[in-house]
């Protein structure tokens, strides 16, 4: 009886311990989920259904195609490809997924078996037979490569002093190069002879699985070499959807980080061939392109500017393959930007404003603005103009602070570019004129004669200010930085460049609307504001900058009135809308070419800064 009582008392302790284990597992899973959420904080560019695409390189090992959006799209086309992916996700790499070999198995005692040796003659025979397409020798070669490329497999050899090719790094590189460059030709012949009903694709599957594992674990130089030869391997990879997804992610990530232009072109051609053969990967590839683009677009310096512009060009070219599908993806991204903007307007704090006023958010607006300007003739893309314009205007109105004048001017330049291409009237002058009338350009008039003591003090102060001046050029700060500190406003050169940029934006705005019948009214209002600002400016350099722009505007107003009075009477034009259209088409004046001079001026500053080899801020040309 006593023994039975002891057993009954021991049962509840086991049951409680199991409960504790379950609670601990749940708490660990919850903590892991919270960590994953914290890692992906900058998910404003993703839709809610696509949040799983923001991944790290370490998370690739845990993902599979079964949980992605590709299986839900085009269900009829996926029926054939589901048969090819019956083996599960290739991300869960095991020894069974590759090639089983006796040399890789461990004994019960934990001691590893010694690997076999290979001479040069045996290696030559193996390579020659495998290149001819022998299934037996191809499997042997795959076993060898699987052992050499597996980082978890430590190869142990006998120390008998015999010749062993597998210990020579040159021979190992020769084996891997043959595996990447020549073996795909032998396997590609077997694709036509595959019997899908019997799943007779084991050799190709083993090859691709070893290749994908090696791409993930190899060094950067070897990864670049693999993607240089990716066109030869692509027919084999396209046989499996889960492998293509992995290679697509790794390739786009390499595309976003590499500085090699030729390698980037090869990756783009690989993705284009994938899209032409499997159209369901189009939307998915755009999402990955956008994610990797924004990871690079966080900073703006001499290296990243050129790189970011090239990435934008590549994305714009990829979108041209199917603009109808591209419309849906672009709409989701712009919608996500609008949701983030609305959340900051409702709860306006310093941290929420920083989530909008950063280069990542601004570069996303620049990208979609360039896409709309490129494909504006397409009816679907044209519909995205108004939501994008409203989003940009909402970003400008979010904070009218003086420290964000540069961000406002960057977005005004983008709006002017959209207005020029789309012929939509956007009143951008109302955001530039308050900058022109600010107190930063007002300086008190200095007396003509000064005492000698004051001159000495001024010279000493000038020397001190020279040490305090930033080493980078003020024009660089004006053209790229999103924020100016109060200390930087003390520098005269920065204020001068800011004034020139404001005047250029106003001239660009008027040049876009120079052929419209309302040009005189628009120009008169701007001239009034410039005259009132000129009364408050006492510095000679500042006054010359404003006067030169005012003279150009006045000259073009007189030319416009002469053309209007010579050809038509204003009362007749207002009555007949067709006559207004004809007048605007025929009214081509020199002022419409003024924005070209502004663009050349910006490009000249960029070229001057580009010649500098230091890592400095540079100008962003939003109009190109």
Strand content: under 5%
End-to-end Cα distance, whole Å, is: 92 Å
Let me know the largest β-sheet. Answer: none
Number of strands: 0
Helix proportion: 55-70%
Report the structural category: mainly alpha
The coarse silhouette is: elongated
What's the SSE pattern? HHHHHHHHHHHHHHHHHHHHHHHHHHHHH
* Radius of gyration based on Cα positions: 33 Å
Distinct helical segment count: 29
Low-pLDDT windows of residues? 1-16, 34-43, 47-114, 157-161, 444-453, 466-472, 613-624
Mean pLDDT across all amino acids: 75
Furnish the topology, listing elements before pairings.
Blueprint: H1 2-39, H2 75-84, H3 120-131, H4 135-149, H5 169-181, H6 183-189, H7 202-217, H8 220-228, H9 230-237, H10 241-257, H11 261-277, H12 281-296, H13 302-319, H14 323-346, H15 350-354, H16 359-374, H17 379-382, H18 385-398, H19 405-422, H20 429-436, H21 452-468, H22 474-480, H23 486-489, H24 492-512, H25 519-535, H26 540-567, H27 570-575, H28 577-586, H29 594-610
Defining traits:
624 residues; 29 helices; 0% strand
Summarize this, please?
This protein is an all-alpha fold. Among the domains are: 48-104 and 112-296, no CATH class; 472-624, no CATH class.
Your description of this structure?
By secondary structure, this protein is mainly α. Among the domains are: 48-104 and 112-296, no CATH class; 472-624, no CATH class. It has 29 helices and no strands. The chain has helices at residues 2-39, 75-84, 120-131, 135-149, 169-181, 183-189, 202-217, 220-228, 230-237, 241-257, 261-277, 281-296, 302-319, 323-346, 350-354, 359-374, 379-382, 385-398, 405-422, 429-436, 452-468, 474-480, 486-489, 492-512, 519-535, 540-567, 570-575, 577-586, 594-610. Helix 10 packs antiparallel against helix 11 (261-277), helix 14 packs parallel to helix 18 (385-398) and helix 25 (519-535) runs antiparallel to helix 26 (540-567). The longest helix is centred in the first third of the chain and has 38 residues, at 2-39. The chain is elongated, with a radius of gyration of 33 Å. The termini are far apart. 29% of the residues are buried.
